[in-house]
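Handout, page 2. Input:
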Amino acid sequence: MELRQLRYFVAIVDHGSLSRAALVLHVAQPALTQQLRQLEEELGAQLLHRSAHGVLSTDAGKIFYEHAQAILKQVADARSAVTQSTTRPSGSVTLGLPHSISGALALPLLTAARATYPEITLQLTEEISGNLNEQLKSGRLNLAVLFDDGQLTGFETTPLVEEDLMYICRAGSGWVPPDQAISLGAALASTLILPAQQHGVRPLIEQAAGSAGLALANIIEINSIAILKSALLADMGATLLPLAPLRAEIDSGALIATPVHSPAIRRKVTLCASRNIPLTNAASAISRLVREVTEMLCTNGKWPGAQLLE
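Output:
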C-alpha cells in the first residue's frame, strides 16, 4: 500500500467521481482506476460503488476513508515538524471544538492566531464531544477541547475553565421559576430540551440526577445548538446549559437564565492532545494560545459563567 493510493482514494471520495478526482490530481483516469483496483485487491474489499453518476463509499470504504485521512494528516504533520522553525512555527493545525464552546472561543482564537502566528493555518471543526474524542485518538485532530468526565486518561490535558450549568427558558414562559434559583429536582420536572447521550453535557446531568436519586422525565433531544435555541424561543421547554452558547439571547432578554442548586452542576473544560502522536511546533503554539485566549476571555468577562482553572 502506497501513500499515493491513499491520496487518490481520499480525492475520489471527496470529489464524488473518478473523472473529477483525475482532473484535480492531474492523473490520467485509467491510471487512477488501476491504483484503486490494486488498493481494493490488497484490502480484499470493495471500497466504492461505481455508477454513471459517480461513486459512493461502501461500508468498508467509509471505514478506510477515515483511516486514510488520519494517516495522510500524520504524514503531513511529520513533514511539517521536521521543516518548520521553532521561532516561527508554520503549517496546519486542526482543533476540534464542541458546539457549546465554539460560540465563546472560536472567533477570539481565530483572530488571535492570525495576529500572532500568520504562518499557521488554523482549521476549526465543530462536533459533538464524542466525535471529537474519537477523531483526536485517530490523529485526525491535533487538539480538541473536551469535557473532563474522568475518562480523559488517554490524553495530555490542560485545564481551561469550569462552567456552571444554568436553567434556561424563554422570558415570560410558564417554565420560568418563581424564585431567583431552582433546585435540580424542580428543573428535571420540567420539559427539558437537551442534547443526546453522546453530547458532553448530557452525561453530567444524568450523573447528577442519579446521585441525587432523581430521574429525567420529559426530554426533547436536540444536538444542534441553533435548533435547540429555536425550540427554547418557541417555548417548547427549558434547558440545562452553560451561559456561553445562549449569551446573545440572554443579554437581549429573550431568554432567562436561573442558577441551579441542590446540587449545582458544573463541567470542566479541558484542552486535550494525543499521548501517542507528538505535537508539531505549530500545534504546540496553538495549544499555548488557546490557554492565553481563555485567560483573556475570563478576565474580560467575555466568557460568561466560566471560571479559569489553574
